[in-house]
């Protein structure tokens, strides 16, 4: 859309497709050189996303978000951040958030084909967590590789599965409150391709949040 500020003319054009996304920004005048932000999905490996709702004295004051695509070397390829004000979580139609979210959806569709190939080859799909950890999902099972420890749980061993406050929580049937055994949790924002993780959980384990 077109917006005007004290600094003068500003125009933004965005595009989301099957193989990538782009944003072009012109500032100052119509003759200015466009600023290009371009992401080709085949150059990316991971997408990290996060939403943080802010409150002051119990009153909602706004939501911050980020969508960051990274390459194989961990370098940021496209980082979209911003703030919107919508207590029900739906910013106005022209808010830049929708470009970022549309990119996430297109990326997830693109990535699912690759994840199917990974599943066929390795018998599971791996999702990076906290940079050095990982969660693997296969037909009827999950594996948690946190630090030097790895633990596999069959689907019927999972007693509690939830996502609340931006945190995934998994507990096995033999988990106890006084022990860390059988307890696994991590932040949504620290998991690569979290939207695909949710889809894979549904497809391979029948788990829905």
Overview in brief:
The chain is of the alpha+beta class and 209 residues long.
Q: Could you please describe the fold and organization of this structure?
A:
By secondary structure, the chain is α+β, with helices and mostly antiparallel strands. The protein folds into two domains: 2-108, no CATH class; 123-205, PH-domain like, CATH 2.30.29. It contains two helices and 14 strands. It has helices spanning 97-122, 194-205, and strands at residues 2-5, 8-16, 20-28, 35-40, 46-56, 59-70, 76-84, 125-129, 133-138, 141-146, 149-154, 158-164, 167-172, 183-187. The protein has a four-stranded antiparallel β-sheet, covered by helices on one side. The protein has a four-stranded antiparallel β-sheet with strand order 8-9-10-11. Strands 5-6-7 form a three-stranded antiparallel β-sheet, with helices on one face. Strand 1 (2-5) and strand 2 (8-16) form a beta hairpin. It is globular and about 65 Å long. The two termini are 35 Å apart. Mean pLDDT is 91; it is low at 1-7.
Overall pLDDT level: 91
Low-confidence stretches: 1-7
* Backbone shape: globular
| Spatial arrangement of strands, main beta sheet | 1-2-3-4
State the major sheet: 4 strands, antiparallel
Order of helices and strands: EEEEEEEHEEEEEEEH
| Number of strand elements | 14
Distance between the termini: 35 Å
Note the beta-strand portion.
Answer: over 45%
Oligomer: single chain
Helix content: 10-25%
Structural class: alpha+beta
Computed Rg: 20 Å
**How many domain modules?**
2
